[in-house]
Structure formats: C-alpha cells, structure tokens
Amino acid sequence: MKATAAQRYGDPDELRFTDVPDPKVGPDEVLVRVKSAGVNPVDWKILSGALDPLLNVHFPLVPGWDVAGVVEQVGLAVWEYEPGDEVIGYVRKDEVQHGTFAELVSAPVRTIARKPASLDWHQAAGLPLAGLTAYQSLARAEAAGGETVLVHAAAGGVGSFGVQIAAAKGLRVIGTASERNHDFLRELGAEPVTYGEGLAERVRELAPDGVDVALDFAGGDAVAVSQSVLKSPRRVVSIVDPGVKEAGGMYHYVRPDSADLTELARLADAGKLAVNVDRVLPLSSAAEAFRVSQEGRTRGKLVLEVS
Fold this sequence. Notes:
It is built from nine helices and 17 strands.
C-alpha cells in the first residue's frame, strides 16, 4: 500500500511517499480503507523525537492518529462492525509505527466509532483527536450547564471544539483569540477576548465574579492567568503544561474512547458540533502539512486526502 513514512527522527523533510506492507489485523481490530487522515501537532512532535521519552516509536514510522474511512476487514473477535461500515477513529496504539497516513490502517475497536452522517470525509477525519481532547478536558473539570468556562486558543483545532461542546452543554463560553478570529468565535458561541498582556483584566470585565472552569489549549502563561480569574484555582485543565498539577490544577492527555467518539458524532449529527477544515492536502504532501501545522496559525483542522 501507499503511505507517508519516515526512516528516522527529524524534520518534515524526512517524510517520503512510498510503499509499505499492508497492516496485519489483530483479533479485536478492523482494517480501515482510509479516506482522509487528520493532522495534529503531536504528529510532527513524534517525528521530531520530542516524545521519545514517553512513547515507544518504531521505524519506518507512518505518522497519524486521526482517521475517517471504510471498514474493509474485521478481526476474528470483532462483532461490532462489518465490511462497508463508515467509521472515524483516534487510532493511538501502545506502540507507535503504523499510523493513519496510509491507504490502510488497522484500528482496535476501542479507538473507533461510526462516522457522523452529517460530516464529509475531511470533516470527519478532523474530529477525533481534537474533539476528544476538548470533550474529555471539559469532563475532567466537571463543567456543568450554567457555569462560565474560559477557553484559551479558542479558534484553534481543539479550542474550536471546546467552545462548541461547552455551548452545547449550556455553559457560557469566553474564548481567547487574535482579533481576526473574534467573529469566528462569536459564530461558534463564544464571547471573544484578545490574548496577551492584560488578558486577566479583559476576562474580569466580562466575568466580574470570576469564571468556573478554564481550559488551557495554548500554553505559556495560560495556567497562571486562569488561576487569577478562577473561582477555584483547582478547576483549570491544561493539555500543554504538565506543571499545572503542581499549581493545583489538572493535566489531561487525550485517550481513545469509543463511547466519547460516539457522543461527538451525535453532537455533530444534531447540528451542535461543526468541524472547520482549514486546508486539505494530498497524502503525498504530508511534509507540507507538518510545516503548516508548525506555524501554529491554522483556524480549524488540517487534513490529508488519502482516497
């Protein structure tokens, strides 16, 4: 099969569009014919070697954890799916090697769910990792309807989902972004504020009594700013800064979860969760997609078209 792969750690230029063996299909896995694959910052961070202390990475490495495609074969113990089913997945396995930037990927059933009918293939591929990150972060903070949540980097891939999911749960949402993205945030259901110096004061103007929950999808001083405007400093969740735990908050690293994916699909089909695709590139241009992602200026998701 065709795939984009690297033979060693390095920058995006290490990626080659090449032939690799078809994946094996384990007893509790399905073989997915990939239509589209989502690109996330973690993909190029793995390629750079930055996550080597945390993950068992093997070469040749086919990156990618997000997928939307069609089940082509099911494992011996799989009863939930059959060939022809359309699925989405956050296909993170214990060993990192056989990713979704390929024509075929084997996916454990715990990592997939049925594709939302309302989304096209590119939109569907952009949903799993970022959508799960936002959904699970809100769950970790025990955010409830009627509360106010501050979302940092609210116009980004994860943040835009966080805004919509929070709004769907009945929360008031304040989102940080550059001024050029303020109208976009209003469309998603957030009250925008400009990030940077003086952010805490701008948040207090909107929420004089403080906010209930803060989600750090940006890094930098987001945790410190959040705790200065939170009613309880404990209720900040960061996906960027593990030091948040020492400050009394919570750190979250997204987990594959079929039930959570199913709920995201339900929200999408109910018209409460849109996927903004910033750019679609061919699978052979994965290196370019990585460079675009590294610039950190995308609004929404980057997606690779596979088949």
